[in-house]
Design goal:
The chain is of the alpha/beta class and 317 residues long. The chain has eight helices and eleven strands.
Length: 317
């Protein structure tokens, strides 16, 4: 007998999808490497109109081929999911002394804005997608480093390690966010390793995030980045104003049961039930926040409202 929410949520039924990659968009990064392109993957259902859009940012080192358990689920249930391979991907192999390294967090945001600028190009590159995307309903989502990327698009401010300025890099085209197993505040709570190697985590300001959002955190996510343990990854929920929800995944480590891939070797807490829980709750939230349907989100809130469910807890503020 399953313990996740499959029998409780009503739909819609999964439909066939189409996925096209790589679609190359020109993306000169601050003039340093003008011939660089950002490679993009678009996944979408083959039927349906007014399809909402999810911009998905991968974790550090991953690429546009990752996170199939989430991407496939969302696309087969009515969303256009757009992924990029960011400069920190292992596919690029930039060295520790590369002058672009302190700007990796900023390049990611530039990639996402470039995608939003080029929706016409992306739509034309996918057979049968023309005229079916709803550009007024865009949600930014991401895992780990990608969660910060999604957060920045809705108001998270990061103090640039080079300039010590925390700019507003949010984009009004993004209506909400889904942040999975992502970073909390910096300061003295960062480990020396994180302070030295991930300077974009040193000072994060969540107080300007007023867009709605869902934060997903594993209660066993012991990252070597903060001295606070798993509670650190709940900061995007606790420290940001506005309408937020938090899904705590019991027993979940950094990859939340295996969301990064169907056979992901880096998963240390492999659990089909945890993956299914994250799939279903995130889909219910996406349908809720885009105004597509409210029923499944209300059902998920009721089922996960206290500590009685064996897989997780869902709370809102």
């Amino acid at each position: 007998m399953t313990t996740y929410l499959t029998t409780d949520l009503t739909g819609p039924a999964a439909t066939p999808t189409v996925s096209v990659k790589p679609i190359a968009l020109s993306s000169p990064r601050s003039g340093e490497d003008p011939h660089t392109h950002v490679h993009v993957r678009v996944s979408a259902p083959v039927t349906g109109t007014r399809l909402p859009i999810v911009l998905f940012a991968h974790g550090f080192g991953s690429d546009l081929d990752g996170y199939a358990p989430l991407v496939d689920h969302w696309a087969s249930h009515g969303f256009v999911v757009i992924q990029a391979t960011h400069l920190d991907s292992t596919r690029f192999g930039i060295g520790a002394d590369d002058p672009r390294k302190p700007h990796l967090w900023r390049y990611r945001v530039q990639d996402m804005k470039r995608i939003l600028d080029e929706l016409d190009t992306l739509e034309a590159s996918v057979p049968g997608l023309a005229g079916r995307m709803d550009r007024g309903r865009v949600v930014a989502a991401g895992h780990s480093f990608g969660g910060q990327t999604a957060g920045i698009l809705v108001g998270l401010r990061v103090k640039d390690p080079r300039t010590s300025i925390a700019e507003d890099l949010s984009d009004p085209r993004v209506m909400a966010s889904v942040q999975l197993a992502t970073a909390g505040k910096g300061g003295a709570e960062l480990t020396p390793f994180a302070h030295e190697n991930l300077p974009w985590l040193r000072e994060q300001d969540f107080s300007h995030i007023t867009a709605p959002g869902l934060v997903v955190a594993g209660d066993k996510d012991e990252l070597p980045l903060s001295t606070r343990g798993p509670a650190w990854t709940t900061d995007p929920y606790t420290l940001s104003p506005g309408a937020k929800s938090l899904l705590t995944v019991y027993g979940g480590r950094h990859f939340l049961g295996g969301i990064s891939g169907y056979g992901a070797a880096e998963t240390t807490d492999e659990s089909p039930d945890r993956v299914a829980l994250v799939q279903q709750v995130t889909l219910a939230y996406l349908r809720h926040v885009t105004g597509t349907d409210q029923t499944d989100w209300a059902t998920a809130q009721a089922a996960l409202a206290s500590d009685v469910h064996p897989l997780g807890r869902l709370e809102s503020k």
